[in-house]
Structure formats: structure tokens, C-alpha cells
User: Fold these one by one.
Assistant:
Number 1:
Amino acid sequence: MSKKALQVAAVRGTRDLWPSELSKQLHVTKALASVASRYGFGPVQTPTIESTDLFHRSLGDGSDIVMKEMYTFQDNSQNSLTLRPEGTAGVIRSLISSGLQYNGPHKVFYQGSMFRYERPQRGRYREFQQFGVEHIGSAGPSTDVDVISLARDCLQEIDLLDRVSLEINTLGCHESRLRYRKVLEEFLEKYRADLSIDSQQRLDRGSVLRVLDSKCDNDQRILESAPRLQQHLSDAARQRFDDVQGGLAALGIASNLNDGLVRGLDYYSHTVFEFVELKPETGAKGIAVLAGGCYDDLVALLGGPATPCVGWAAGIERLCLLSTQQPPSPTMIAVVPIAAGDSATVTAVRHHALRVAKALRDKGHTVHVCDGSSMKKQMKMADTFQCSFAVLLGEDELHNDTATVKHLHERQQHVVPLPELAAYFKPSALP
């Protein structure tokens, strides 16, 4: 078999991540989890595969995800399974199947792979990492504000706050949406022939509100004169949204009302929001980096009791794309056995190097053992690992219970007693 035949590329829309990139993703995820923990949220984990029916029921048969983007297959028992396209439905399914829906409230966060068959582009992949939070079982504007505040603090933690803006809207209560859907549908039917094919299909499926989210310029021109949901809110829904905006203002969180923001999933209600990238060079808005809202009907839709919920999710790849913050890099130390002489001496020096490396690691240092056939190759290995120091260990060091520490960036070296070696690499002890 030829070498060419053995080459298998990664699936389109997926990526291989090696330490330089993956370390940033892990750093961002850890930062978000740390902030969520300070808000009292705890980790939860659900399966990557779920019953396909879960997403048909939760996301809606007419949603773009269900119609175009899910990775669905049948297992050997002819069960229809789907790689999860988002995390909320799985968390709520787990809540109900575990019998936890009656002893809330629950505050959880999750992270993991999600899958959507979309056209790969900047910040968008077919397998992507998502971090999300769910506040389950507490109702009211204060909970909405608290969850948005958590999102803001997460973005601040990774130095992204000055690169995004908060867009906010309300979808109102169920009755408000029913009234508005009827009025909007009557308006759009007048312009059906001028709407994009996607928007016409959304009208046919009954996904009227999704037309507001159209990316077609001509659709948006038509929508400029469309009736507004704000005009059809119930008094209670309007008061709730006023309270949310007032709570955000009290925390000093700036927001922009965007009455075209509807989110793409059927389960949303009341407050919805997105943190959207700002492009300083043009002043235009870019990709949404974090988005969410209330979903008070989802638990009941999946077989549980009526339960208020609010949450959000963020794509880790998009956060890493925009954030210039880098994970802290540990000081790399190379332990270099200088093996010469008879085989017994060579073996003794190499074993000694392994013991020294372990002792340094036990004290929390990051250590590479750079063994090889020549000093030149060993030092090249230390450079490849981006080591700042090389601990040279030969026969003399073995007998004298010392180590020769070479500063690889400063062209100097020092002989250090072996018992003092671990402390030598603390910043305060460096000469």
C-alpha cells in the first residue's frame, strides 16, 4: 500500500488541536468555569448522543437545526440517535429522567463537543466546543439579570468585554407571542413573493418569528415597516422586560434593544440576548460569541412540570478567536544527562537524571528529560521544548551531589547543591 493511500484527512469542518491551540481553549474554559462557580453554578455532564426525538421536541421540527444541520443515524437496534447540536435539551432531559425537576432550583454549567452540519467559516465548525449555563427553577427579572451578569463577567475574565456589545430583546409571554405571530404573518403574506426562499419556507412551516432573523438584505428592507413585538406585549411581559433593563442598568451593564433578535430555537420566551463582536475598523457587528435567554416552556414540553429557566451558551472557538489573552506558560526545565564512560557509569547518570526530574516534578516544576546520543542533540531537544533552563548532570555532579544549571537565554550557568535545586527555580531565588 502506498504512503498516499494511508493519508486520511480530518473530516471537513473538524479540527485537530495540538498543545499550542488546545492550551488556549482549556484556559478559556477554565476561566468561564471559575466565574460560574463564583455565581454558585456547579458542573454537569450529559451524553454526546441523544435520542433524535429529544431535539425534534425541544428545538422544533421547523428549526434550521432540525431540518438542515443535525448529524442523525440509526444504531444497530434501529434507534434514531443524534450527535447533540446544543446542550440545553440534554440538560433538561437529564433533569427529568433523574427525577430532579421537583427539588430545584438548580444552577449548572457544562462544556463539551456539539455538532452541526453548517458551512465551515470563521469561528464556525461542524464539531465545536461549547460552554453553557442553565439556571433552572427560578423565575423573574432578577434571575435574568443575574445570568446576564454572569455572562458579562465571563467575557471580562478573558479580556473580551471591550470587543463585544450586548443586544437584548423580549419575546414576551406565550399569549403575547400568539398575538404578534398572527399580526406579523398577515403582514408578511402581503410580501410573500418578494421574500427570500428561506423566509417563504419559514412562513410555510409556521416559523413566522424566524423571518425576523433573516440575513437577506431585501427581507430586512421589508421588515423595516413590519409591526413590532413590543407593541403586542401583555402588561406583565412589558413590566418584566422593563425590570430586566432596569436591573442591568443598576449593575452598569450597557445594552442595546434589538427588536429583531428572536434566537433560532422554538423554546425561547421572555428575555433573549446576545453578546456580539464589534469591529472597530468598520463599526459593524460581527459574529455572536455568547447567546441565550429564557425557556420557561421547555421542561413541560419534555414531560416535566412547568418550570422557569434561563441560560446561555458560548462557542469556545469563537471566544479564542477574539480573545488576545494567552494562558500562562510554565517555566520549562530540561534535565540533560551527560553520559560518558563505561556502560555502568552511563546507566548510573541516566538513572540519576530520572530521579532528579521526578524530584523537580514533585515540587510542581515542568520538566523534560532530554536524553540522546550527543550533547548537541540534547540541547536542540531542550530548545524544541522551549526550555529556559538546562540541568546538566554528569559523573562529577553525580558524585558531588550537585547540578549545573544553564540559563539557556542568558548564556550563564551556576553549580547548585542538589538539595537546593527545586527552590532555585522559584522566581525569588533566581540570581
Number 2:
Amino acid sequence: MKTYRSRFLTTLILLVTGVLLTLGIVLGQLFKDFYLDSERDRLKEDAELAALYLDGGDLADIQDYVGQIDDESSFDILLLNRRMEVIAGTPFRVGSFDFRMDASSIPEGGTFGNETREDLIQFTKPIELSSGDTVYLSFIRYVSDLEGVYDRIWLTIALALIFSFFLILFVLHNLTNQFIRPIDEATIVLRELADGNYRARVYELRNDEETGSLAGSINVLARNLETISLGESVQRARLESLIEYMGAGLLLVDERGIVTLVNRSYRDMFQYDELMIGQFYHGILPSPDVETLIEDVYLTEEPHRRQLSIRSGFNQKTYMVSAAPIFSDTGMLRGTTLLFNDISELKRLEKMRKDFVANVSHELKTPLTSIRGFSETLLDGAKEVPELRDQFLDIIQKEATRMQMLVEDLLELSRLEREDFHLEFTPVQLNQLVEEVCLVLSQKAEQKSIHLESRHDGEVVLQADMNRIKQVILNLVANAINYSPEGSQVEIAVEKRPDGSYLIVKDNGIGIAPKEVGRIFERFYRVDKARSRNSGGTGLGLAIVKHIVDLHHATIQVDSVEGEGTTFTIKFPSA
């Protein structure tokens, strides 16, 4: 691509060349005419001098004079009579003339011209002879004799023009370098800016006010564009990052129904890849209901929102799908944006809340019904019978105690779930806590002839909340005693391993079915509901255990074989 500088310089060179050629031709013709005129004047002067010298002389003397003219002379001389016949002349050229002239047309001062010859200059001057007759002296100069002079004139002009051409070319080159090259550089930089390269700059000439001002203005423009572009790039990166990593799945469909954008959350939700971009939406979306939602937006040009159940992998999940139209500045529909919010956890929590309310109501209903029933029986007269009265009061006391335990466990669970709840970490000797729990529960174990065996693999010290860890051990060991048959054994082990400290509670009880293992830490969930209530449990113990373990950044694992027993293993991280 030719630059402005090269085009401008080429135009100037062609213009200068044309001007110089025209000037050379004009000058050459002027010099030629000037030299020709000077030769005519010289010829006239020579003729007049000769005529003045010969005027009044004899014809023979004049003929001798003409005949003595050296043939090396730059001109020829002819002597003519009144009939314009050559009577004398330069010997070697006389015969070459076909000379005709009217003597009456020749004035006394002489005249130029020869109508029959264009290759010569002729001046004819009348001479009065001593005899009174008139002859005519004609001086002739051949134009061909001037060709050498003309050649030298043309050569001189050509050399002068060539020198002038290169001198002008040098000046033009310097001028274009000074004035035009900055424009070329500015053009290149502007083209770079148009292509998006905002780092391009023009070199500023400090000694040139005009081009320096232009370069400075372009550089200011470039810096401003770079700043704007950088800001837009940052905003674009932020927007792309926000879209890509936002928690909700995002899908964009244009006015033709072509998928133009999907973010990471959408791909993770429905196991899609980026190959779906550029495809028509029909048949590639996770549910026909989503396609219907898009079509509704196209038909109504209004936002729509629906709760849809969509299979994601092997799981059926619930999504709140919001679809909204995208309009151009002119109000034309340009596409649809869909936002997928996974509300499965919210639905699960809502179900848990409903189940929790139902379970609490159910757990409170049973003791309240018992208390009310036995109270009414006592009021109806049973209090008069000592045996019935004592029995009913004992039942009322037990049910009230169970209600109190339930409320206390609910309050405990609520405290553990609060965000501002904090544990009091201190060095805790796990071995000592196990021994204390065994001592506390020894009487309960003896009532069922259950042997409590504690096993320690060296001293284990934890950074933990002592009361909460003791609560965990009490709960697990008490459950093991409650669900173990009489005469069995409950083993509590403390082990120190390279990857952490372990607390293991193992019983030989009824065990847990595999389908039940994953739910035993849920609130109010009981494997054997009747047996659990008879043992005085509230159904919240293992839920409390799980929360305390999680707060200590530990893990709890359940291994159980139905009919053989259950093992709870808690792994505490290394200090």
C-alpha cells in the first residue's frame, strides 16, 4: 500500500518533470531564436560593412573581392546583377543556388529573405558601381552550419535541467521527510488505532510546530483510546468473570433461536459443553419445558418465570427458571436470556422444616396426650385409689421428663446451628474423657449386663471443646447400650494414627439396614421408632453428634451390619 508521502512525492516529481521539460523546450527555442536573430544581425552588419567598402567601385574589383573570400568563412557571398543572376560568388557554393529575387523589391538599406530557400539566412544589399549601374551583394549563412551551436545549446539546457531536477528532487525529498512523512506516520498510527492497537504512537518532532502538534494530538487520542479500551477490557473481563462464575446457570438465545452463550454453572448443571453454542436451541436444552418457556417469551415479548423439575445427571432437581426478552435500541426483539437457579436445596430445607414441625408436633403430642389422659383419669376419681394414683403420677412424670429432654435437645441443636456459636478449644485428654463416660454409664450398662470395655492406644490429646466432645461420647455409648442386647459388649477405643486421632464406639446390637445408614443423622429419624421411644430417646441425639463433629472439623463414619452390630468412627484432624 502506497503511503501518502510516496504518492505526494511521485506527483511532485511528475509535475516538476513536466515543468522542467516544458521549460527546457521553451528555453531551447528561445535560445535558438535568439542565436538565429544574432546571426541575422551579424550577417546584416557584415553585408553593410562590405557594401560600404565596395560602394562606388568597379565591377571587376568587386568581383575580385568576392572571389577572394576564404572558403573557410562562416558565410557565402553572391554578387547579383539587376536580373538577379549570379555574376560572382564563393566558388564552392555558387552552383548550388537556384536564386530568384525581384531587384525592384530590394530597398536601398538591403533586405533579408529568400523565398525559395528555408535552410539559409540571406541579406542582400544594393551597391552603386562607378559606372552608375547597380549590383547586389548577397550575404548567405546556412542554417545547417548552426546545428552544432544548437546542439551545444540543447546540451547545456539538458544538463542544467538534469541538475535542477536532482536538486529539486533532493529539496522535495527533504521537504516530504519534514512535512509529509509525519503525515504518513500519523496515517499508519491512525490505521493501527482503527485496528484496535491503542499502544501505537507517533514520534513527535519538537522543532516542527505543525507536525508536532498533529503528532501530539494523535498521541493524546491514542492514550485516551487506550485508557477507554483498558477500562472496557476490565469491565468486559469482570462481566465475563461474573457471567462465567455466577452461581446461576445462564443461557442466551438470539432472535433466530441460536444459542450464543452458556456459562460454567449451566454446563456443570446439565453436563453440557460449549459445542452447543451456535446451534438451534430446539432439542439441545435439558427439558421441553424450557423450550416452551423460550417460545412463550418470543410470542409475548414479556418476562416469564417458572419452577421446573429437570433431570440433571442421575438426579431430579428443581430449578427456578427466569426467561426475559432482550431488546435492541430500536425496540426490536434480539433474543432471550434464561437464568437457572437450583432451588433443590431450598425445597429440601423447606421439606425438612415441614417434617421438623410435624415431627416436633408428633413428639410432643404423644406425651401431652398421655399427661392429659392420666390427669383426667386422676380427676375423675382414680386419685382415691393409691396404687392407680402412684402409677399414673409416675407415668406423668416420665412423659414430662421426656418432653423436657426433647425441648433441651431442640435448644441444644438450635444453639449448635447458630452462626455466632463458638466452641471453647482447650487441650483435651481423650482417654480420660472415655474413662469418665464409662464410669457415668457403668450403672446403666450393669442393668443390662453389658460389659463396657475401653481400649487406649497411648495418650491422645486434642484441641477441642471438652464438654461437647464428652457429650458426643455419652450419646454414642448410651445409644450403643440402648440398642445392644443383654449380656453383650460395648467397646470404646482411642487410637493415635499418622493421619489423625480416632474415637471408635462398637456394639453388638441390632445393627442398621444399609438403606437407613445415610439417614441416621437426620433429626427425629429412628431406625426402630418404638424401641427408641421406650429407651427415652428424642431422635435428636445423632443430629447433635453430627453438628459437634463438624464444628471440630472432624468426620464421623458409620459401619453397620444388620443383626450383628454397629461401629461409629470419629476421625479428628492432626493437631
Number 3:
Amino acid sequence: MRKWTGIAVGVNLLLGIPGVVPVWMIWYFATNGPLASLGWTQREPTENDGILPMLLIGVPVLTVSVLLWVLANWPVRHRTTLSWWRYAPAALLVTLIPTFTLMIIL
């Protein structure tokens, strides 16, 4: 089972590289939408298209990303000793490592 733990980490690290895009899209939507409406952030001055373009692009990208993540992790999780409720948060945190790395570097 130790071999599959390493494979799970590798799969999620690799999924985290293109996973930077959906995380960025969620952040962009949140800062220009709900958080700006609450006064917690300032809107991008050139962002005057409204919410529809963000939803038309963001929803399909997020849907494909989540489906890809679940489909890639499902067979790997069955070969480990962890339950889904323990495996999924750990896999999600490993998937976010590239995003956190970019946040620190940039």
C-alpha cells in the first residue's frame, strides 16, 4: 500500500499544475463579485462585463477540473487504506501545493 500512497501524491501534484487555473478563476470571480460587493476588496477597474462572462467560462472549466480530479483519484483511493473522507482532503491539499508555491514565489 505504500507504493500507492506515493502514486496518490504524484497524481495529485500533477493535477495541481493545471489546477492553478481553476483556483485563479475562483479567486478572480470572488474578488470582483461577492467580496467586492461586501467591500472587502476593490473591483478591477476594467472589469465591466458583469458576471455572465465569468460564469460562461468558469463553470465549464471548474466542472471539467472537478470531474478530472475525482476520476483520477477514484481508482487510486481504492488501492490505498484510507477512506474517501480521509483521502479526499489530503489529496486536495496536495493538489493545492503548486498554487501555494506560485503564491509564495510571485
